[in-house]
Amino acid sequence: VHTLSQGALISIYGTGFLPAGTTGRRVSPSEYVNGALPTALLGVCVDVSGQRAAMLDVYPTQINAQVPAVTGASAAVRVLTNCGTPTETASAPQTAAVSAASPEFLYFQLNANGTNPVSLVNAVTGALLGPSNILNGVLTPARAGDILTAYGTGFGALTPAVATGRIPQGTASTVGPVSVTIGGVALAAWDILYSGAAPGQIIDQLNFRVPANVAAGNQPIVISIAGINSPPNAFVAIQQ
Hints:
This protein has no helices and 25 strands. By secondary structure, it is an all-beta fold. Strands 12, 15, 19, 20, 23, 24 and 25 form a 7-stranded mixed beta sheet that branches. It is globular and about 65 Å long. The mean pLDDT is 96.
C-alpha cells in the first residue's frame, strides 16, 4: 500500500535514522504521553504535512508509525532526527497519495508467491484459523457459518473518533461504507458484523460470517472501504 489514510500504520525505509552503532527499538509503555503513543522516539519524528505521526518503532533503516488525520489528495512526509533540538535535521520530503482509507489485512506470514494468509481468529472460540500446512500446523481452515475476526490497518476515520496514537478501549466503527468478498462471493450486509478499531490495539479489525457458498481452498478476500479495495494478495483458508 502506497497511500496514506488517517490512522493507518506505515513503514518508512531509508538510512541514517539513528546514529551509527545504535540498534533502535520499539516504543515502551513508559514513553506513552497521557496514554497515547509519543510523536518522538529516540529523537526521531515523522512529519506528515505539518502533523506529527505517532511512533511505534525506530531502527537505523526502518520506522513504523501511525498516520495522523491528513486531508487533501497528497501529503509530504519527512523524517526528522534530533527532533525538537537546535540540531534537528529533516529528510527531503517524499510525496504520498492520501485517501479516505487504505485498507490492508495483516498476515500470519508473507509467502514468496505473493499470496498471504490473513491473520484470523474464530471470534467465538478464539482458535487461530488458516492453512494447516504452515506455522507447525497450529492453524485450521474456517468453515461456512464460522464467525471470524480478521486484523488489518488503514480502515480510515472511525466513529466515535479515535485520536492519533490513542489506544481505543472500546469499539469504534469505520465511517466509510464497507463491503467484503471471499473467493469472489460478495458477503451480505448481515454477514459483515463489525469493521473498525480493535479494542486495546492500534490496529483495525473486521468481524464477518463465512457465507455458505464459498468454495473450499485458499480463497482470496478483499475488503472495500469508501470504495477503496485492499490488495488482492490476501486469502482465507476454507474447508467443507
